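Many introductory courses stop at the sequence. We go one step further.
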Amino acid sequence: VDIVSLLRQVKLELQDKIDATDLIFRWQLPEEKIILPLDSQRTYRVFENLIVNITKYAMPHSRAYITMENTENHVKIIMKNISATELNFNPSEITERFVRGDASRNTEGSGLGMAISKKIVDLMGGTIEVSSEVGTGTEFTISLPLQISELELGNFKFSDLKIIVVDDDVIVCEHTTELLRQIGIRSDWETDGQRAVQKVLAA
């Protein structure tokens, strides 16, 4: 897949959402193609999730910078913005756990999408790093290797997974299960913890 073209496609598909904000997006992408042996649908979802997060949580009237760099061994996609409020947790936690309802949330959504994005990138042999500095902003850096082994590509199937989403918010449950379905993961949801445990035990 041409990862440059894929990111441009995400930009085009999200343009209405971007235009609905008062943010100024600055894009710096290579002119040449960069071909990587990736799953285009899942990589698209990673880019989409990060850009949507910017539209939700960036400081109003600020700028967002999205750049792509082709290094000797990796392609780096860097997305940087100024958050609406100071992060009140370790930046690395945003990709490690379900972060929801904290002071930085100025709209609906959940941190589960970030955890899924991190898992997808991990399976492609890449990394997602997060850094944050007061007054400077939050920066997500996706690093993808130019060569991905057949082991990494072939031995894992999302269709082998079955996930149950548990939250007392029906909208969050429906949104999350739809996101999982789009990347090929079977899922179910429950708003009651005890019923969720019963489903897990019965599976």
